[in-house]
Amino acid sequence: MKVPALLALTRLATLVSATPVAPALPRPLPQIHPLRARQDNGTNSTAPCAQVSQAIYSHEWPPYQTHIPAKIAYDCITSVPLNVSSAKTLLSEIPELLEWQSTLKALADPPAEYVEKVQPAVDLLGGLQTIAAQIDDGKIATEYDFGWTLYTLLQSAHDGHLYFVPDSVGNIFTWGRTVPLVSVSDDGSQLPAVFAFADVLGMQFKNISYTPSPVVEIDGVGATEFLEGTSQYGSLQDRDALYNNMFYGLAQIALGGEGSVTGAFTGGGRGRYVYPGPTTTLKFANGTTHVMENYANVLTSFRNIENGEQLAAKNFYYGSVDATSAMTEAEAAAAAPAAATTPATPGYPSPVDSGAAGAIKGYYIQGSGYEDVAVLQLLDFVSVDQYEEDFQATSKRFFAKAAADGKTKLILDVQANGGGTILQGYDLFKQLFPSIDPYGANRFRYSEAVDLIGQSISSFASSAPRGSTSNTTILSAQATWFDYHNDMTVDGKPFTSWNEKVGPVEVNGDKYTTLARWNLSDVLIERSAGINITGYGPLANVTGPPKFKPENIVLLSDGYCASTCTIFSEFLTKQAGVKTIALGGRSNRNQIQAIGGVKGVNNYGWSYLTSQAALAIRVAPPALQAKLNATKLATTYRTSSLFSRTATPPGVNVRDGLALNDTSGVALQFKYEEADCRLYYTPEMTIDASATWKAAADAQWGSSGKCVGKSGYGGDGKGESEVAVATAKLNTGRVKVSHAVALQKYEEFERSFSLETISKKQRTGYMLP
């Protein structure tokens, strides 16, 4: 039961000094009601799944418990025996999905710098064979063991567009802890240390009588070592970005349930799929400890469930699902509009402008020395049709107002930005730099499926003038990548045929399609973007100088920037010369990347791929149709366990991004690029976004910036090998506010503790959390 806020504030001063974690813990385990469940007929079973049922329905009336002790949930899910034939079928069908993964072969043999600084190589197809062998050897005997092994294999690609969550991992339970953490430097120069966020809150609002002590061990392992290791289960590729994502962050909270909420450590984002054990023990530098009972979030009904077999019968479908029905369900979920109300955003001032359900907001920084600085916060690039025009209009309004108000400097805050509509990234760049033509070269991985679908759809799309037919099927075909008229060569010329576009071209040991670029003047561009692009087509007359000089713009990132966000950042940094600032990172003085998410430039869901295969078969001329019907496009693509055995429809990254003037052929996904400046988080920055923006402005344009190590413009010059002082404590009494304001602020943060990442969320063009 949640402790009331006023009582929590009182206890911060009285109880926490013994164990430096505030008792007003987020998402506490509900008390189990002593009344027996109506379904148990007077007896309580000791079988794990029966215990789950009893824990959920221990009340005689709703609301029932949705958070239960993690241990009984884990014992339940691991009691479901493996259906070997279904598992083997799934393993045999996954390669059909993976052949669309643009980096499939490169992942098995990535560049040496990527292996050294980012992630190790992974052979996904070989890994599937290993899992099959483990099943044959009896080493994998339960559905959960199978699902978890498969999930971690595909997750090890560290590609946020490659999304595959087996049913046993994401359909029954997700997991969580009750104490969010932060990693902060006391003064912005000392090495950061890990603290309980409740301690930081208490310290900031002067409600504690002790000096907060850092967490030094988690479950007997050094805190930073534990968190670095656990962070590897995340979707990002960069290790410093993964580390940041373990912690409470204001931008993730601002996303509501569509973000990593209170951090992967507490079960936010991909952390919700990682079983944390029955309990977690935090040991503090002052010698005190805190033991929390971990919990499971129940995602399905357990009515009349007594054992693993019954759970499987009700929740696991071992057959195949028709692609048409699965596609319809997935598309309906993806098309559902996001909530019109913006989630509560503790730690942020009132915006000057806001749009697209809070995805984009404009701010001014209050305080002496920041009068000429504007901030554009980009939580994502939307991916919902009803917000596309609003997103574009909001940035236009804000830039005009900022200019009128004398703002000459701009911070582009992309913390927590997982992407969105591809061409929104193009448009925003063109608004800022009207005279620069964004490059954006891209390619697919070549396969027979790509070629055959493109042959059919390109032929069909050519049956009517582009964009001037009332036939919606033809229009839809003309707006897909599989119509060669849809884009252009890297030289800005139209492709003359499908064969010219598809190639294949052999690069670094794999085959790809010919490099292409978006034709931003295409008459059907609105069908891809939901908007016309600034500077092209109907908006071709939008010209002029940059909205801000490149040296007066800085891109501010916590490393989460992914998908469309990386496209936008590539244009800014490579073509316009904009500088970057990276926040946080592991506890060292190394330079780090600002962009740590997937740098692939397009993801397709399996439902979309199967729909394109079905369309290709339906509209193909007779000879080609016969050829298509002789392939897996007419079998595996039509009925597949890829739908029935996953918690959320899976997807892959289909397009690589390639850098301007780069002849190596190496996708941007494998490029390591350090930020121009690195800043540590301070305690103030965890509760006040303005503190972060001021630190960024100081680093970019001031004389008091605290860029770490060799990075930045005002760096202290200390090399990464030099021993630095670590944060050993946090100084108290930092913020001067009244008791009433302290209570209000604390309650705002307390409400955010109940946020959880939405399961089974569908969003196109977006790295799902």
From TrEMBL:
Native organism: Byssothecium circinans
Annotated PANTHER family: PEPTIDASE S41 FAMILY PROTEIN, RHODANESE DOMAIN-CONTAINING PROTEIN
Superkingdom to which the source organism belongs: Eukaryota
Pfam families: PDZ_CPAF_rel
Record key words, sorted: Signal
InterPro entries according to UniProt: ClpP/crotonase-like_dom_sf, PDZ_CPAF-rel, S41A_metabolite_peptidase
Ligase as UniProt keyword: no
Protein name: Peptidase S41 family protein
Keyword Membrane carried by entry: no
Signal sequence annotation: 1-18
